[in-house]
Structure formats: C-alpha cells, structure tokens
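Support request, please re-run this one:
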Amino acid sequence: MRFEASAEVRSRPEDVFAVLSDYQQDPRWRAGVISMRPEPPGAAQVGTTTDEVIRFLGITTRTPGQVTQLVEGKLLAWEARGTRLIASGIRRVEPALDGARVTLNTEIRLRGQWRVMEPLLALVYKRQLRGDLARLKTFIESR
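Re-run finished. Output below.
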C-alpha cells in the first residue's frame, strides 16, 4: 500500500528540512509515536538507525529503521522492518511561493497474519498521514 500527502508550510525550506531530518522531533508531530530514538542523535545522515515505538489501531509496536538516502535540505529516504510490517518512505522538501512544500510518501507491507488488516490500515493511515502533515505545519509555523 502506498500513501502520499503534501502541504505548504510558511517557513524556509532549510528550516522545514531541519525538523524532518531530526527524528527526535517526530513525537511532536506524528500521531501515536511514543518514542523515536535515532542513533546517532541529531540530524539524520545515511546510515542513521532509529528505534520507533508507536501505537496504531490500539497496538503498540517497536520498529527498527534506517536512513537509506539523504539529499541535504531536500530529501530523506528511510526503511523500517518490524515483526508486523515492512515500510519505506521519503520525506521531501521543495521551495514554494510562501515557504516550502512538504511531501511525505510511505509504502507499507504487512506481514503474516497482519495482512488481513490492510483494508482498515489503508483507511486509517491515509487520514493519519494528512493529520501528521497538518501537525507538522502547525509545529513548524508556530516556532
């Protein structure tokens, strides 16, 4: 399943990317993220690993991830492999008329018995991704 959401943020693209590439900020704008620990801490780089604990659909899951590509100030690609899912995505920032355009792409494949939940996941995650983007916009613009 693939998901994408975009929004314009009234802030400089480099400031927006600074938030997106600092995984320690994720709990501030991503619903359900209980904790996100990047190693090493700080701005992500290729090879940065993450330990995410998230609550989604009433289930708490720990998912290890890794940054796979970084184009400074523009793009961060990641992948995660947990016991319940395999996911990958891109966080992209582009200049826009009044600041920056943020695009979040996510691809999720559920594993094993969890596959039966794909229709529900698709409905809920699409809404959550749009909500996450709205929270990101509010978080950045209020700084």
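The mean pLDDT is 95. Strands lie at 2-9, 33-39, 49-56, 59-71, 75-81, 85-96, 99-110.
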